[in-house]
């Protein structure tokens, strides 16, 4: 009886309270990113697979344009991986719009069984977490993760019509127009970009903030919580990661994150890195605190982060997309803006 119990304990994949470590890695065998004109003029332009000449992408509405971003990103990623929709067991996908309409209309025609997700701007981390768990659990061999956002559709959904011309405070971020898709596999592909070796699932954290134009500070407590939990669960220090990468805190939110982590005994000031602070050029592009949106983390992961892992410039990173859990309804009713973040441990192949 004791022998059997010891065997079960040895094979447990749980690490601490909120984490999972995979005995065998899950591979990111291919990825693709599609982005708008503004993103195509930024520092990551060379790594983005396709950019539009205008942000309607030949469509009649902003929402249709966002759907086309997802459709194209999935198509490009599958092409790079050398697979078609019949070889994909599941699609893990989501966006920022009500009822995830960018996803439903974007990937509907692929006919792939779908898990529709909503984690706000943390959706990339949520999708990679659930997809890698499905593969590690033996429920799938090949899956696709995709998410998107669009500046104009997000402004329409959460704030004011663009025609209103409202001013934004310096703490505000600019929603990235784009989509990132990732093909995950049980087996290592010929051109595998990175491997997922573990995840840390975040909790909803609410510090009582209500400023929807300072989402970086609204999300920073959740990012801090999941980062510290990851370090605790895996018995690591910040220096065990080449970078601790947040999704879209921006310059204001990142400062808050570093301070919050220091209060909990972790100095992440040296290797903290935020996608929202690198997708745009602060000197040439007026985005205030930086970039945000589901596509911020997804496009940056595909266009830049995975390349650093491929070239062994970084060997292990903690990828932490961040999300602000608000809606027009909750905001108009005076509710707070809770945050969520999900950690994914990425390593070079």
Topology (SSEs and partners):
Layout: H1 2-11, E1 14-15, E2 19-35, H2 37-40, E3 50-51, H3 62-81, E4 90-94, H4 101-107, E5 114-117, H5 123-136, E6 142-149, H6 151-158, E7 174-175, E8 178-185, E9 194-200, H7 215-234, E10 243-246, H8 250-263, E11 272-274, E12 291-292, H9 294-310, E13 316-320, E14 322-324, H10 328-332, E15 339-341, E16 343-347
Parallel strand pairs: 2-3, 4-5, 4-6, 7-12, 10-11, 10-13
Antiparallel strand pairs: 1-2, 2-8, 2-9, 6-8, 9-16, 13-16, 14-15
Describe the structure.
With 349 residues, this protein is α/β, with parallel strands linked by helices. The protein folds into 2 domains: 23-185, Stage V sporulation protein AD (Peroxisomal Thiolase, Chain A, domain 1), CATH 3.40.47.40; 194-347, Peroxisomal Thiolase, Chain A, domain 1. It is 34% helix and 23% strand. The protein is built from 10 helices and 16 strands. The strands form 3 sheets. Strands 1, 2, 3, 4, 5, 6, 8, 9, 10, 11, 13 and 16 form a 12-stranded mixed β-sheet that branches. Helix 3 packs across helix 4 (101-107) and helix 7 (215-234) packs across helix 8.
């Amino acid at each position: 009886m004791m022998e059997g119990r010891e065997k079960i304990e040895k094979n447990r994949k749980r690490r601490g309270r909120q984490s999972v470590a995979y005995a065998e890695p899950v591979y990111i065998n291919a990825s693709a990113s599609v982005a708008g004109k503004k993103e195509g003029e930024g520092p990551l332009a060379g790594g983005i697979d396709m950019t539009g000449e205008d942000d309607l992408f030949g469509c009649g509405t902003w929402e249709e344009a966002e759907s086309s971003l997802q459709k194209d990103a999935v198509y490009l990623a599958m092409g790079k991986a050398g697979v078609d929709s019949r070889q994909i067991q599941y699609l893990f996908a989501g966006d920022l719009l009500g009822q995830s309409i960018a996803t439903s209309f974007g990937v509907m025609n692929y006919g792939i069984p779908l898990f529709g997700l909503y984690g706000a701007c943390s959706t990339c981390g949520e999708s990679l977490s659930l997809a890698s768990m499905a593969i590690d659990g033996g429920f799938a061999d090949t899956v696709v993760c995709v998410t998107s956002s669009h500046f104009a559709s997000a402004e329409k959904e959460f704030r004011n019509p663009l025609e209103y011309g409202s001013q934004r405070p310096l703490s505000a971020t600019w929603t990235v127009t784009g989509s990132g898709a990732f093909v995950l596999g049980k087996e290592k592909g010929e051109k595998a970009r990175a491997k997922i070796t573990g995840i840390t699932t975040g909790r909803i954290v609410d510090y009582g903030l209500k400023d929807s134009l300072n989402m970086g500070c609204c999300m920073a407590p959740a990012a801090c919580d999941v980062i510290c939990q990851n370090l605790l669960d895996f018995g690591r220090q910040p220096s065990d990661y080449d970078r601790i990468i947040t999704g879209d805190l921006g310059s204001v939110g990142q400062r808050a994150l570093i301070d919050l982590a220091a209060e909990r005994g972790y100095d992440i000031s040296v290797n903290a890195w935020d996608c929202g602070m690198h997708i745009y050029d602060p000197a040439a592009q007026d985005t205030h605190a930086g970039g945000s949106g589901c596509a911020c983390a997804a496009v940056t992961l595909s266009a830049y982060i995975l390349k650093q892992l491929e070239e062994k410039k970084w060997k292990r990173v903690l990828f932490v997309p961040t999300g602000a859990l608000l809606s027009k309804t909750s905001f108009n009713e005076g509710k707070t803006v809770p945050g969520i973040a999900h950690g994914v441990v990425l390593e070079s192949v």
